[in-house]
Amino acid sequence: MKKKPVKERIIETALIMFEQHGYHGVTVDQIVDECGTSKGGFYHNFRSKDELLYHIHDVFISYLLNKAKESYDKETDPVSRLCAIITSFTRIFDLYKPHITVFYQESTYLKGDFEERINEKRDEYRKLLLQVLREGQSTGDFRQEVPAEISTMAIMGMINWMYKWFKKDGELSIETIASIFNDMMIHSLLTEKAMKLGRGDRFLLKTEPV
Question: Which domains does the chain carry?
């Protein structure tokens, strides 16, 4: 079997070790010993352990932001945009759960320019989601009495908490979980008029025929 590239092995090893022992509980020497490379190999790919932690964070945040932008451009109405963004947000836990877990456990150790760059992307994502909700309120699709700012934080908090409980081998698939989240948001946010017009019908959970 072909050996994985050094950078990939370093990242995979660091994810496991950071999650188990914490960022400050792991040294570069321990990482290179565990993954079978050298300190030279480590510093060829990362200037420091801080840059490695930044990379772990940046991989999934950049992917998430790009997917949200793709959803916004692909869909043509606020309801479809919101549901597509929620779906892509949920799916990331199937792809990058170790990265996300390390992020929430160790993000306080990210400092300086690294912290600033990550926060900029997180803020850009939050603003895009907020924009979609406000657009939906202006079109009459989303309820005006529910503040868009609160809805934004509620959606992000609801999905982010998956890092605590989602398991790939669990009872529910990632697609089913995304559908549940969308169903919840549609029933919470859509106006009666939008519901009657079937704005979110394709994202609702399907009921079994009696």
Answer: 1-46 (1.10.10.60), 48-203 (1.10.357.10)
